[in-house]
Design brief:
Layout: E1 2-5, H1 8-21, E2 27-32, H2 38-48, E3 63-67, E4 71-76, H3 83-87, H4 91-95, E5 100-104, E6 118-124, E7 133-138
Parallel strand pairs: 2-5, 2-6, 4-5
Antiparallel strand pairs: 1-7, 3-4, 6-7
């Protein structure tokens, strides 16, 4: 599925809808350039999970935990130099739990990501305007078919 958004509010709205639909154990992999909107999308997911804490990117801590309808494990692996580094923090315990894992920059640790995940790529569309983004959601697992319910 693809969505074209032209504002942070629409990115948050898309994330909120997704957050309302996610299930225990879901893994969401986010990729896109710096400033594409990965953390804004995560903020929306958190709101959909009924988490009202201030959501920040865990760039230096690797993972932040939040509590709502389901636990949210928000990873940012941009600064991870070696996949063993993320394994050392108990990564498997997070992603194979009943929480929802959102992993920014997941392409850096592809070998650690299970096949059954939702992949989201955010692409800047400067030719349309400074705030335009294409958000592409894909999965090869039927348990993520709920993304078909998302409307913009």
């Amino acid at each position: 599925m693809e969505f074209i958004v032209d504002s942070v509010d629409k990115t948050l709205s898309l994330g909120k809808q997704l957050g309302k639909l996610v299930q225990p154990g879901d893994i969401i992999c986010l990729n896109g350039d710096l400033g594409a909107g990965k953390t804004h999308l995560t903020k929306g997911i958190a709101e959909g999970l009924e988490i009202y804490d201030h959501i920040t990117s865990p760039t230096f801590t690797i993972v932040n935990e939040y509590y709502g309808r389901l636990k949210l494990y928000h990873f940012d692996v941009y600064r991870v130099n070696d996949p063993d580094e993320i394994s050392a923090i108990g990564f498997d315990e997070y992603i194979f739990s009943d929480g929802v894992s959102v992993i920014e920059w997941s392409k850096y640790i592809e070998e650690l990501i299970p096949n059954n995940h939702l992949s989201i790529t955010i692409t800047k569309l400067p030719e349309l305007g400074v705030n335009y983004r294409k958000i592409t959601l894909t999965s090869n697992d039927v348990s993520y078919d709920y993304i078909k319910e998302i409307k913009l």
